[in-house]
Amino acid sequence: MPNEKAPYFGSSGSSGSASTSDITKDNTNINTNYLKFTVRETTVEINNAYELTGELKRISEETGSYVKILKEYSLCPVLIGNDNNPVFLYRIIELIDEIIDYDKLKEEFTNLSYAHFNGAISFLKKLSQLNNKFIDIDELEDIALISNENFVNELRTAFLNEEGARVLNFGEFYSRATT
Questions:
Q1: Model confidence at 165, in pLDDT bands (50, 70, 90)?
Q2: What pLDDT score does 86 carry?
Q3: 83 lies in a domain?
Q4: For a pLDDT cut of 90, what percent of the chain falls above it?
Q5: Which of 37, 86, 128, 170 could form a disulfide with 78 if both were Cys (CB 3.0 to 4.6 A apart)?
Q6: Residue 34, exposed/middle/buried by CB under 10 A (0-12, 13-18, 19+)?
Q7: Does residue 45 form part of some domain?
Q8: Residues 74, 94: one domain?
């Protein structure tokens, strides 16, 4: 087996082949190159996260410093209420999404669809959920909802009621559709 050729990346980063004994002998070099690559990628990610955090803090300061970027909240944008309790910015975006008049938006921007508006709000929500732990907050909330037995039962009941109403009203619907 020592004469078997295997692909590897040598210390120059170029691809080649070597016997397994060469790979064993050169194993430190291969690992070192991999670690250098990994460290460089991680450094880029850290630098980008650091720059983004700095930019978010700058924007916060320019807009009155109401939105805080604090380590204790994993740098997720948050407002601190008069009672010193946090209100995450994404919660405000969710509420805006619920109360916004999409028809007025459509009147103002006739060249955009409702899907465009939904995409814009979703983008703002995701942007407001940025955090230094790269946690997908929507996913965590979905998992919590699915795990909540009361919510699941309410959902089942709602679907059953809707299905029952559809079946019970089918005769009325059918008679209107055929006349």
A1: low
A2: 93
A3: yes
A4: 34
A5: 86
A6: exposed
A7: yes
A8: yes
Q: Is 114 among the domain residues? A: yes
- The pLDDT of residue 153 is 85
Number of C-beta neighbours around residue 19 at 10 A? 14
Q: Which domain holds residue 7?
A: 1-62
Q: What are the angstrom distances between the C-alpha of 24 and each of 14, 48, 80, 155?
A: 17, 36, 57, 59
Residue 60's SS3 state is helix
This prediction's pTM: 0.56
Task: Yes or no: say if 48 and 37 are a contact pair by the CB < 8 Å rule.
Answer: no
Nearest to 120 by CA among 93, 92, 91, 88: 93
Tell me, yes or no, whether 7 and 49 share the same domain: yes
Q: What is the pLDDT of residues 42-73, one digit of tens each?
A: 555 556 667 778 888 999 999 999 999 998 98
Output the CA torsion 157→93→72→144 (10° steps): 10
Query: What's the mean per-residue pLDDT of the chain?
Result: 74
Q: Say whether both 86 and 129 belong to one domain.
A: yes
Residue 136 and residue 124 in contact, taking contact as beta carbons nearer than 8 Å: no
- The SS3 assignment for 147 reads helix
> Quick check: is 143 in a domain?
no
